[in-house]
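Quick question, first post here. What does this chain look like in 3D?
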Amino acid sequence: MMTYPNLDPVALALGPLKIHWYGLMYLVGFLGGWWLGRVRASRPGSRWSARQVDDLLFYLVLGVILGGRLGYAFFYGYANLISDPLSLLRIWEGGMSFHGGLIGVLVAMWFYGRRYQKGFFEVTDFIAPLIPVGLGAGRIGNFINGELWGAPGSVPWAMQVSCYRFVELCREKLHLPMGGEYSPPLHPTQLYEAGLEGLALFLILWVYSARPRPTMAVSGLFLLCYGLFRLAVELVRLPDAHIGYLAFDWFTMGQLLTLPMLAGGMGLLLLAYRKKNLAG
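> Answer (accepted):
Ran it through. Tokens below.
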């Protein structure tokens, strides 16, 4: 058993200006994805230029931030949005949805493809191996913030967290009585997701996309692998307190939103290899 080190979510404070680690992790994700995009564009036979990758970053940033924030507000915090509409703008308080960000990115990529006369799946196949960098960095940001914890567990790396700092977690999610100093040992699901959705997914997609693949195949593999990883982690991740489990004391909103990704990924892979239209 381990104790969470109570990391300060603020990386740098300059008077009233506070720079949060969570925001810096988004910056790491965007810059890392941009650099890897340039590496992919420089491969022999690539139909991508450095200028196109630079412009692509702008569309990705808009899609991730707008889609992620709107997705969280509608999927996980609709009641709060109705009572406090301005909460939508307070992005530094946390509250980003991967599924909303994915929808935002897909819309942004559609607009990008129209501008550069590229097919929708040509664009998504190109960016799919870049996205895990941001996913992994974002989960590290969740860990620093001390949010999105897993359920109590007995694994050696399970962590206790301070109930004085994480009042909402201890009182609303774990239903601990007042006066407790620490939570029971919890699965560090943020680190599970950083390892699976970040590192493992990146390695799978980067290696797979190193050779020409049928159009839609890389996108399909991204959806399939992410769906499998997310479904697995959700089995030991605590649900949002205001939503709870949707069914069976284990089925969560995250799993519900991930199931279409799993089906879509398998469908794209099947279509891709039936057509066998190799991407350049």
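Residues 73 and 81 are 6 Å apart (CA to CA).
Strands lie at 2-3, 10-14, 17-20, 159-160.
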